[in-house]
Write the structure tokens for this entry.
Amino acid sequence: MQAFSIWTEQRVLMAVVRGPWSDLTARDYVAAYIDAASALTHDDWAHIVYLDDWGLGSPDIEPIIKSLADWAVKHRLRYFAQVFSPNMVKQYQLNRMLISDLGTCEKRTFAQEADAFAWLNEMGFSTDSNGAMAKRA
């Protein structure tokens, strides 16, 4: 099974990540993310990532993902939703990679993807399917 799937629906970049990550996986993810997001960067856009099946990463992925977050915010990312069941270890590593103050981008974490899609919809970012990400990726 692939370590990640990335696609866009309307003005939303969607991602599902899986398994443990190395720096090579993180670099592949960054390349795929930027490739997919580049079509959205002429206007404000949103991002939702499904993390329930992500198995954390080695510490060397942290600066790579932090750099990607900086790139995304500089390229008009405005809303970012993380979806995963409560997990303190996962939250700890995510917090190390993604600072809570992303400037012009608002980040929220949800246990249920329906709540994440509802929030993005409220913010003006609907998708074609509005849910069931893990099943489609």
Notes: The chain has a mean pLDDT of 91. Helices lie at 23-37, 62-74, 88-97, 113-122, 133-136. The chain has five helices and seven strands.
